[in-house]
Amino acid sequence: MYEIVEKNKLAPEIFHFEVKAPEIAAKAQAGHFLILRAVEKAERIPLTIADYDREQGTIDIVVQEVGYSSQQICDFEEGEAFLDVVAPLGNPIETEDYDRVICVAGGLGAAPLYPKVKSLVDHGAEVTTILGAQRAEKLIWEDRFADLSEDLYIATDDGSRGTEGFVTNVLEELLSEDNDYDAVIAIGPMIMMQAVSDLTAEYDLKTIVSLNTLMVDGTGMCGGCRVTVGEETKFACVDGPAFDGHEVDFEEQRRRKKFYEEHEEEIEEHHVGGEGCRVQAK
Amino acid sequence: MSKQSRTEMEELDPRVRVNNFAEVAQGYTPEQAVKEAKRCLQCADPKCMEGCPVQIDIPDFIELIAEEKFDAAAEKIKEKNNLPAICGRVCPQEDQCELKCVLESTGEPIAIGRLERFAANYGEDEVTKPVQDKGKVAVVGAGPAGLTAAADLAKMGYKVTVFESFHEAGGVLKYGIPEFRLPKEVVQEEIDQIKKLGVEIQLNKVVGKIKSVDELMEQEGYQAVFVGTGAGLPKFLGLEGENLNGVYSANEFLTRVNLMKAYKFPEYKTPVYVGNKVAVIGGGNVAMDAARTALRLGAEESMIVYRRSREQMPAREEEIEHAEEEGIQFQLLRNPTKILGNEDGFVTGLECIKMELGEPDDSGRRRPIAIEGSEFEMDADMVIMAIGQNPNPILLDDSPEIETTDWGTIKTDEVGQTTKEGVFAGGDIVTGAATVIEAMGAGKDAAEAIDEYIQSKDDN
Ligand SMILES: Cc1cc2nc3c(=O)[nH]c(=O)nc-3n(C[C@H](O)[C@H](O)[C@H](O)COP(=O)(O)OP(=O)(O)OC[C@H]3O[C@@H](n4cnc5c(N)ncnc54)[C@H](O)[C@@H]3O)c2cc1C
Ligand SMILES: Cc1cc2nc3c(=O)[nH]c(=O)nc-3n(C[C@H](O)[C@H](O)[C@H](O)COP(=O)(O)OP(=O)(O)OC[C@H]3O[C@@H](n4cnc5c(N)ncnc54)[C@H](O)[C@@H]3O)c2cc1C
Ligand code: SF4
Ligand code: SF4
Ligand code: FES
After folding, report:
1. For B278-420, where are the alpha helices, taking DSSP H only?
2. Which residues pair with B226 in a beta bridge?
3. Which residues contact B245 (CB under 8 A, 6 or more apart)?
4. Domain FAD/NAD(P)-binding: where (chain B) (predicted)?
């Protein structure tokens, strides 16, 4: 069991958990993720290791309620424990060979972006960060990014903080003035990572995105996390989750994420309607 | 007596069983078991034993059943086989012990597997934990190979820790082979017995990620490591349309249904998509399991698409027959060339090419050859790829000293020693996808080799 030592609400529907897991904390690096099964009957849910403290033996996750399983995780309280956590999974991200990098986060993407920014700065890079959200109250960890970044820009869809509009508006402005950067790292919704990649392609600027595909095992055994990268099929869990944004087939990924839409509705009905358990009927 | 024919075993009616996940084969009653056991000739030179990779003393345990000493029969089997309830169900007996039985030529060999399954219901539940003071051994992977090695080493007096990446032990027995062929409760009971021997199983631990083989040996004091990580990497054909929604690897489909219990969705929260018309590509046990599972989940039609003919299908005869009885359709001598989809990215059909059989290939089976220009389309809203698995590379990527073959399997000598000192391997990770009992045989051999290795080191 993996005990929750601290829980904070970061924004509406977004929670931060600090979880006791000394063995994982000892091995975690920026870019790693974990798979969590909250209770016996739950799904296995992939989440980024957003931070870790080797001395305390804890790891951090930030979870956004988007469907049943993520809500179930967010209902856990301090002192309670998750049933299963397997980690570290995936490949750590390369952060050593950069001097100047722009890091872009959309919404919840700020959490998985954070360890990368931290690692880049630790390795001497100068980081410019762009944080985007629908509205001001949905921004997370602004203070943490402010501490680490050379420059921090904010964009909100409704203009309630920073620039009104998308992160790509800010990015475009920055790049049009000065595109002497080594790379862009973008994490957020597929559509946002796609937009960033399309933009940076015009500047021929290396772009790394982190894909949040559907997953089951996270160890290369199921192929459920398939993604086409540069015409080749890759497994996001073992080949990624970070990939060259200019090579990823985002359209395919967006379609794949709709695979279980009907089932998601069925789970909601099952719980809201309280009909009891029906064997999966088509 | 030998003229008597094999005692039949009850099976659930195919019309009923396609609607549930209950076990198809019902097992012998005591009367049936005794009757079958009495047919055994008790050969002085029992050929049957040559066919058993773990060398069970077959005539002896059968004689004990004939004498109605069921507990003793169970003990006899357990001297050699820690997982009798599992082997009795899923061993390809017709190619192993029963193939070698002297009565095979009459077409009525002794039903050794059914008797073994029967005996597994008996015997002492109370296992005494052996004294474990001979040293520490780590086992990676809790499939049949790893569990067998662990149990044998524990019995020899080693303190054994098994590291398993999933949240449950059992390997393919839990995530691959479906409930209706091998109830998960049976698997768990056998695993619990192994735990009672003092074997510690650490779940959610991916070796190569959370710790390396070197760390196990150098920092945690394990004197030897057994690698039984299986062949878990699904193969795809590289066809156009393979990433459409509705295309699964058999591994993913079966893992969702078996391990994550998607057949009890939405009580269990892992969903699985099931089409109305399901095409399973392949002709092995895995393909049969996938096709039969899809039918049970409500598919209107479930078919096997296989590029050779029925005789060459690698699946067990019993599985093919069960599949036929349940109404699985067989599209033989057909090979998919493309998967068709709609604008939302869901599967709508398959393009296949017709095949004919040519000269025998390396495996002795006649090679399938595509008939030029014979492409045709068929409807399908779900496609499951069951064309084999490759060895799981996670641990190996992290331990380059363990050499592999061109197929990605681990190189070992005949007792399982790898190219890295103190590291042994066995099961599908060495042979490529094979059988439960061969994996167990390899685990057994390696356990002995590990004992010898540690003892010889201690002597110096
Ligand atoms: C490597 C990796 C790292 C991730 N890191 C984090 C993280 O740090 N924090 C976090 O909150 N989430 C993260 N995710 C996403 C998280 O796994 C999903 O949000 C979660 O599985 C959704 O489950 P659900 O049952 O609550 O929602 P569902 O009911 O399955 O889905 C609800 C809605 O969310 C969409 N959705 C489903 N799966 C995903 C997904 N994988 N990513 C995005 N949207 C999805 C669906 O299309 C649907 O619209 C990560 C995913 C991966 C693969
Ligand atoms: C659907 C299906 C049906 C089958 N039907 C039959 C049948 O009827 N009869 C028969 O004899 N055989 C059958 N087989 C084949 C048989 O199941 C395998 O040959 C056998 O399970 C191999 O055993 P193993 O111990 O080598 O590997 P596995 O059973 O694959 O176990 C390997 C274990 O190692 C774990 N693992 C992998 N990597 C790591 C790591 N880095 N760290 C920690 N743990 C790790 C895996 O999670 C897994 O639990 C079937 C296989 C499948 C897939
Ligand atoms: S373990 Fe398998 S091969 Fe050996 S006797 Fe039993 S059924 Fe036959
Ligand atoms: S070969 Fe057949 S008849 Fe002879 S001992 Fe073995 S099972 Fe009995
Ligand atoms: S999640 Fe199963 S292969 Fe990646």
Report:
1. 285-296, 317-326, 394-398
2. B139, B424
3. A255, A256, A258, A259, B273, B341, B344, B345, B346, B347
4. 136-443
Q: Are strands A14-20 and A33-37 parallel, antiparallel or unpaired?
A: unpaired
The reply, when asked if residue A280 is annotated as ligand binding, is no
A233 vs B contacts (CB less than 8 Å): 236, 238, 242-243
Mind giving me the DSSP string for A48-64?
A: E--EEETTTTEEEEEEE
Question: Would the CB atoms of A280 and B260 count as touching at under 8 Å?
Answer: no
ipTM beyond 0.85? yes
Distance B107 CA to ligand 5 centre (A): 45
Least confident residue range of B95-99, B120-124, B156-160, B370-374? B120-124
Residue A225 labelled as part of a binding site: yes
The torsion angle over the Cα atoms of residues B321, B289, B95 and B444, rounded to 10 degrees, is -160
Shortest CA distance from A215: residue in chain B:
B252
Q: Where in chain A is the domain with CATH 3.40.50.80?
A: 100-210
- Residue B427 CA to ligand 4 center (angstroms) comes to 27
Q: A269 vs chain B: nearest CA distance in angstroms?
A: 10
Report yes or no: B112 at the A interface, CB cutoff 8 Å. no
Count Cα atoms within 13 angstroms, Cβ side, for B60.
Answer: 13
Q: For the segment B12-45, what is each residue's pLDDT rounded down to a tens digit?
A: 999 889 988 999 999 999 999 999 999 999 999 9
The dotted CATH code for A100-210 is 3.40.50.80
CATH number attached to the domain at A2-89: 2.40.30.10
How far does the centroid of ligand 3 lie from the alpha carbon of residue B54, in Å? 8
> Residues of CATH 2.40.30.10 domain(s) within chain A?
2-89
Does residue A195 surpass a pLDDT of 50? yes
